[in-house]
Design a protein that fits this description.
Elements: H1 10-19, E1 28-29, E2 33-34, E3 50-52, E4 59-61, H2 62-67, H3 83-90, E5 97-99, H4 117-128, E6 134-141, E7 144-151, H5 162-177, E8 182-188, H6 198-216, E9 221-229, H7 231-235, E10 243-246, H8 257-264, H9 275-280, E11 286-287, H10 290-304
Helix pairs in contact: 5-6
Length: 306
């Protein structure tokens, strides 16, 4: 008679699989039978790889947009760039020197809305890497030394706190004393910073007065308006340039269209706060694409003898 063969148990199979790893044997669960590998998880698209254009709503590959200086390759819409990115785009490599970076915002009113202003400042500094909404300094643009200020809408919408006004005023004063061409690139969706009350409102007059002294000394001031340039910034120094340039399709104005319409009760023309509309009505001098801005600034300085 043939001897009856015993069926191996789960522990015996697991032991055999451990001794012979190449055999392909699967471990057994005493209750559930052979354990099989589960379904392979789907690989998602990495976050941040694609961008949706606010102009044409097309989906754009991020690296392609970055190569074009954050401009949509489909419709030419100019996306936000930070103050640090502006420095890299405009200045000759390694020539920019920051001024007054040690000035830090404070909370003179002890202001609190949804959270204390002091805590808001710290959170914005950590998030943006900026100490406040304006970056100022000097550097070379096509081998021409200039004084330059850049506001950044990512820091409390680029509103004019005391530090923003003080940095810009000192920038203008240094440009006056050193006889440098002055460029201010505005990207501010807000005007006065309500958290600092009247101290913030004073910054509009302070910077404008410094610009008047700069103009009397014969300086060349080029104002560059980007998306957005609104509120007290548009109502003060951004409008006072000897030359006023703007990026395409930038939002430029004092108050929003709904506020204006509710105030004057008149139907507003379409696109009346865009750089194209303002060029037609003489508010700005030229619209310049971001890729051409560096060359055009150097050309304007040469032409005006800055």
């Amino acid at each position: 008679m043939t001897q009856r063969q015993s069926i191996p148990t789960g522990p015996q199979i697991e032991k055999a699989a451990a001794q012979h790893p190449g055999s392909g044997a699967l471990p057994l669960d005493a209750a559930a039978g052979p354990r099989r590998p589960g379904p392979r998880p789907k690989r998602g698209v990495p976050e941040g790889l694609w961008l949706k254009c606010d102009g044409c709503r097309a989906t754009i590959y991020r690296k392609e947009a970055e190569q074009m200086l954050n401009v949509c390759p489909q419709c030419g819409f100019h996306w936000y760039v930070s103050a640090r990115q502006r420095v890299d785009q405009l200045f000759d490599p390694g020539t920019f020197e920051e001024w007054d970076g040690q000035l830090q915002p404070t909370d003179p009113l002890g202001f609190t809305d949804k959270k204390p202003y002091a805590g808001r400042i710290v959170a914005e500094q950590k998030r943006t890497g900026l100490s406040d909404a304006a970056l100022t300094g000097t550097g070379m643009i096509r081998a021409r030394r200039v004084a330059c200020g850049i506001t950044d809408s990512s820091f409390i919408m680029g509103s004019m706190g005391s530090v923003v006004g003080e940095r810009l005023a000192r920038l203008v004063e240094r440009a006056t004393s050193q006889r440098l061409p002055l460029i201010i690139i505005s990207a501010s969706g807000g005007g006065a910073r309500m958290h600092e009350g009247i101290l913030s409102l004073m910054q509009m007059a302070k910077v404008s007065a410094a610009l008047a002294r700069y103009s009397a000394a014969g300086g060349l001031f080029i104002s560059v308006l980007t998306n957005p340039t609104m509120g007290g910034v548009a109502a003060s120094f951004a409008s006072l340039g000897d030359l006023v340039f703007a990026e395409p399709r930038a939002l430029i104005g004092f108050a929003g269209p709904r506020t204006i319409k509710a105030t004057i009760r008149v139907e507003l023309p379409p696109g009346f706060q865009t750089s194209e509309f303002l060029l037609e009505h003489g508010f700005i001098d030229r619209i310049i694409a971001r890729k051409d801005l560096k060359s055009e600034l150097a050309r304007a300085i040469d032409y005006c003898g800055g």
